[in-house]
Design a protein that fits this description.
Length: 386
């Protein structure tokens, strides 16, 4: 099986361009350890989930570090968020062992734990890593021969439909239900894996932060968000349903976002102050995690939410491509008080693109085109997205 990912070139070339620590963050099981061991096979590897290893680094003693790191130029500290003070460890190695090239992986808690300190300011370059894109999925299962950003490029350039020797619609239907975690390449449709992964992400990784007081409430909130993918978030309504205050709802959602479970799209408006006032939409980075939360793995044809599943898939694909490919596009949605809506608005200083994302067919809101007559129109469907 081919294991290349979009980030390969950036990670492999990191120390040619920077002396700073290479930080790879993302949810568990997306392949952080795999990509680093493959690109840096000569590195000395430490898994901080092991007590003896953790004790070495929690000594915070540069002499102890020198003794244990002496025989390799490249050092990988895997799951550094498990340390009590991960930033302090990285700072000591970076400052006092300047000949070492330090590589660290972590989940959300690495950044959250270090939010109150400037210990790594100027000392790190961070790369975010997610479940497979559709291109990575097709490449790794040897359906495609090279990686691409077709989903986003097709929108930007309006490429015509291409005949392919594989059924992209059927492959996509499977991803809409089970998601695209790397494990599923070799074990497709593994519901048990997804349920265990979801449980670990939510109740192990997040609760390690000691920032969530009520495990059940956090799970219930995430489940409510899963039922509302692609919809505006009403914080007050969520707070009322869970019998907690609005501030707690917002804080928990912030933690979910920093844990790379969900992300938000804010509304598009040329008046930035107005944009920040309106409520965001919530999307999940992986459809399989979303479906696991609501315990629904029925086929797409039987789903009343297939439109929402497809929209979530496309928006998350564009989010990842935008980041990996450094397109630097703003991602928003647009909606009026009258209910006129555009699913996704992509913009930069030169262009404005309105995207309607529909499982089968759709059209761009005339209200948006009337307001922004120079906007480019794109309708993205199951048949034309790739």
């Amino acid at each position: 099986m081919r294991l290349q990912r979009h980030l390969d070139k950036k990670i492999a070339g990191h120390f040619n361009n920077y002396k700073q620590i290479l930080v790879l963050v993302g949810p568990r099981q997306v392949g952080k350890t795999t990509i680093l061991k493959r690109i840096f096979p000569e590195a000395k590897y430490f898994l901080l989930d092991e007590d003896p290893i953790r004790k070495i680094f929690e000594s915070y003693d540069s002499n102890v570090y020198k003794q244990n790191l002496s025989d390799s130029e490249y050092i990988i500290l895997d799951e550094i968020h498990l340390l009590d003070d991960p930033g302090r460890v990285a700072k000591i190695i970076y400052d006092l062992l300047p000949n070492k090239k330090l590589i660290i992986t972590g989940s959300s808690s690495f950044n959250i734990k270090n939010k109150t300190t400037e210990s790594l300011a100027g000392r790190k370059i961070e790369y975010k890593f997610f479940p497979l894109t559709i291109s990575e999925f097709l490449f790794q299962n040897e359906t495609e021969n090279k990686l691409n950003f077709n989903v986003l490029d097709n929108i930007l350039n309006k490429q015509t439909l291409t005949m392919r020797p594989f059924d992209i619609a059927n492959i996509t239907k499977t991803i809409l239900i089970y998601g695209s975690y790397p494990f599923l390449i070799e074990s497709p449709r593994d519901i048990n894996y997804l349920k265990n992964l979801t449980e670990s992400i939510i109740f192990k990784d997040i609760l390690e932060l000691d920032l969530i007081e009520n495990k059940k409430t956090a799970g219930d909130l995430l489940k409510l968000l899963a039922y509302q993918i692609g919809n505006n978030v009403n914080y007050a309504e969520l707070a009322s349903r869970l019998n907690i205050d609005v501030r707690t709802v917002k804080r928990y959602i912030d933690i979910f976002e920093q844990s790379y479970i969900i992300f938000r799209l804010n509304p598009y408006s040329k008046n930035k102050r107005r944009e920040l006032i309106k409520s965001p939409k919530i999307f999940f980075f992986d459809n399989g995690i979303r479906n696991s939360l609501i315990n629904n793995f029925e086929s797409v044809e039987l789903r009343s939410d297939r439109g929402a599943l497809f929209e979530n898939f496309i928006v998350s694909e564009i989010y990842k491509a935008n980041l990996y490919g450094e397109y630097n596009l703003n991602m928003n949605y647009w909606r009026t008080k009258s209910g006129y809506e555009v699913d996704l608005v992509l913009s930069d200083n030169k262009k404005l693109i309105a995207c309607e994302i529909k499982y089968s067919k759709g059209s761009i809101s005339k209200a948006f085109i009337n307001r922004y007559p120079k906007a480019i129109e794109r309708v993205v469907t199951l048949e034309n997205y790739y």
